[in-house]
User: Fold Cytochrome P450 from Streptomyces ardesiacus.
Amino acid sequence: MNTPETSTASHVADPLRTDAAPEAAAPPRDFPIQRGCPFAAPPEYDALRTHDPVARVTLPTKKEAWAVTRYDDVRELLSDPRVSADIRRPNFPALGEGEQEAGARFRPFIRTDAPEHTKYRRMLLPVFTVRRVRAMRPAVQARVDEILDAMLAAGGPADLVSAYANAVSTSVICELLGIPGENLEFFRDVTRISGSRNSTAEQVAEALGGLFGLLADLVGKRREEPRDDLISKLVTEQLVPGHVTMDQLLSTLGITINAGRETTTSMIALSTLLLLDQPELREELRRDPSLMPAAVDELLRVLSVADSIPLRVAAEDIDLSGRTIPADDGVIALLAGANHDPEQFDEPERVDFHRTDNHHVAFGYGVHQCIGQHLARLELEVALETLVRRVPTLRLAGDRDDVVVVKHDSATFGLEELKVTW
Ligand code: HEM
Assistant:
């Protein structure tokens, strides 16, 4: 594992790196590529960035696609109007069959293009503004304290993923949407199944069907008696006047829950593990909580949990770093590749809460850039600050290999389990 001491990354531009056209395409390599250290991009990304920055890869579905690893290329690609996020395109580089089939059926707006995409994004944007999210801080703090009280009262050892990270991310999103008495494990299962590349289309459809059933029931209730929550707002402003159908509303609510829960859960759990591994960083945050916003952005960059979420198809031929991605080919913008590019970030493996100009792409880039990023930052700040302040004795509950379980089959990188005590 790379620690600041052992990191081999350099801020000096790699002399082997060239922007000239690669001589010949290397044979496709299998994708996804697993991480070695959970706090860094897979080590192979360094070689790809240097020698094969637009690389041919074979996906678990046996389809081929291109994988892009350089910071500048990732940003260029994600802001290029010639790329499409439409999951119905035959070469859309889904990492599992289930994701593609179910996605083509339910059409979550993250996997659509303008003008359809713009319509749903505009529908949600007012709820996620900085101002609206800032006003949520006291409520988020209260939920986080309640969840931590419950974890501490139950006594250690506890699984921090389910007892804290998943509980925080799920209850915040349920409160925003207006879902009462949230069943934490139910939501975790929905995301786990629908986000796993091993799930079949039937399994994904069944998991999403359960979620849509619960949401449809609530939509009916809020139609009768609106409240001050996101579901009521969308029912009153969009469904009732006929701007969206019931299916479209359910799909939009469903993707908001799925996109917001898993990523935030992963970030809280992995960040906690990193702070346990590097106690000097935890101590720095304990001594100076005002560092927390910068720390959260640095953790977002380093951990890049949504590494291979931005999946696209070239709608026309696209030239990038000396290669041409032919029209209709799938392409993946690797966020961990970009966020660990030494041309953009000095010593990218080093976790530095004082890093300046931290223009990471952990939330993506371009028209699909994460709509929930302000909320995500708020949740991370509150969850991590509260843990550092209230549980200074937090530690792993045994040997690392026994208490840390890494999740490898999911669209979002993260932990399945993190057993801690205090
Ligand atoms: C640390 C937490 C999070 C990370 C790392 C993250 C990451 C991302 C990334 C990389 C994208 C762009 C995907 C693409 O380009 O294809 C995205 C989009 C999205 N995220 Fe997040 N996200 C997080 C939290 C949230 C939260 C809390 C919510 C909502 C409550 C949310 C809702 C969404 C939605 C709806 C989209 C689709 C936007 C669009 O297509 O226009 N995310 N997220």
